[in-house]
Design goal:
Layout (H helix, E strand, L loop, with lengths): L2 E5 L2 E4 L4 E8 L7 E7 L6 E6 L6 E3 L7 E6 L4 E6 L8 E8 L12 E2 L3 E6 L1
Parallel strand pairs: 2-11
Antiparallel strand pairs: 1-3, 3-8, 4-5, 4-9, 5-6, 7-8, 9-10, 9-11
Length: about 120
């Protein structure tokens, strides 16, 4: 059974930092590209960042470029999202996802999803 467990969310003041983690089990993690998406209240889910199987290719949404950093540890079956200089508009539920075929910004291409972790940034 495939499981992606998101964690690390919380309440933080604007300008602060958080690191999200996504622990995967039940799948050959190193064969999957990984991504982070987020969904704010009343909005559609949107792409945040993605990393290829080896980590050699990384994509970011323009809104987080320079502030967020995605990484992975294939030995630990875990992908991370380091979030710095957080803004109130970063408030959302953050989801990790796994894509067998390729690293992608497209939500529909992902095969498995975590349950989400809430990030709230106060002004």
């Amino acid at each position: 059974q495939v499981q992606l467990v998101d964690s690390g969310g919380g309440l933080v003041q604007a300008g602060g930092s958080l690191t999200l983690s996504c622990a995967a089990s039940g799948l050959p993690f190193s064969r999957y590209a990984m991504g982070w998406f987020r969904q704010a209240p009343g909005k559609e889910r949107e792409f945040v960042a993605a990393i290829s199987r080896s980590g050699s290719t990384i994509y970011y949404a323009d809104s987080v470029k320079g502030r967020f950093s995605i990484s992975r540890d294939n030995a630990k079956n875990t992908v991370y999202l380091q979030m710095n200089s957080l803004k109130p508009e970063d408030t959302a539920v953050y989801y990790c996802a796994a894509d067998l075929l390729r690293v992608s910004k497209t939500e529909s291409e992902y095969d498995y999803w975590g349950q989400g972790t809430q990030v709230t940034v106060s002004s």
